[in-house]
Amino acid sequence: xxxxxxxxxxxxxxxxxxxxxxxxxxxxxxxxxxxxxxxxxxxxxxxxxxxxxxxxxxxxxxxxxxxxxxxxxxxxxxxxxxxxxxxxxxxxxxxxxxxxxxxxxxxxxxxxxxxxxxxxxxxxxxxxxxxxxxxxxxxxxxxxxxxxxxxxxxxxxxxxxxxxxxxxxxxxxxxxxxxxxxxxxxxxxxxxxxxxxxxxxxxxxxxxxxxxxxxxxxxxxxxxxxxxxxxxxxxxxxxxxxx
Length: 243
Ligand code: SF4
Ligand code: FES
Fold this sequence. Notes:
Blueprint: E1 5-12, E2 23-30, H1 37-48, E3 67-70, E4 73-76, E5 88-92, E6 98-101, E7 104-106, H2 107-118, H3 139-148, H4 156-160, H5 162-166, H6 172-183, H7 192-199, H8 213-217, H9 224-242
The chain binds iron/sulfur cluster and FE2/S2 (inorganic) cluster.
């Protein structure tokens, strides 16, 4: 049984009443064993302040809804055990995304617009044939795609990214990872030139300023930096061949 008393400093703001300035509310209570930030926030909402806004769905690090800034670093609330943190914990909403209120931000609108800009889906000229057999691919290819498809769209990499904070059009680490996923998919009929025209810009791989915080804070340990380097090398080689 822990004997720590926890002090939470929680950012509060309602964008629908902008005349009320943002403030920090302080909540103090005892730590309990196996407490996560999600259970701590639920405790605040159920016992101390029912008006506190924060997001969650799965409580299992699978849906990506609960990203927040914890002592200045992006983390999933449901995956973060309070025992890993000091007893004084500051909670802020993730930057970059549209604020909904308090700790809740709208990541979905940005992820959708990023996917639309990148056309993040399989491009095929083949007419759909519902009686055709499923297309085959090797286990090695399927595993590589699966590895990059594990992104839960939590936004932690974008919240940690210095380039995204200064360039609103930056497609972000999650966007580059998505493009890398389609670049290796044998079912995607896009040419290399078409793929790399989309990513070889200052809003794409050349907008990255190399801080690598995306990689440090991805809760799914996705190989973001490796994939960014791959896209940069491939962009250069496609440009070289095309010149
Ligand atoms: Fe979250 Fe990682 Fe996907 Fe970024 S790449 S959105 S940090 S799961
Ligand atoms: Fe789904 Fe945390 S609630 S990832």
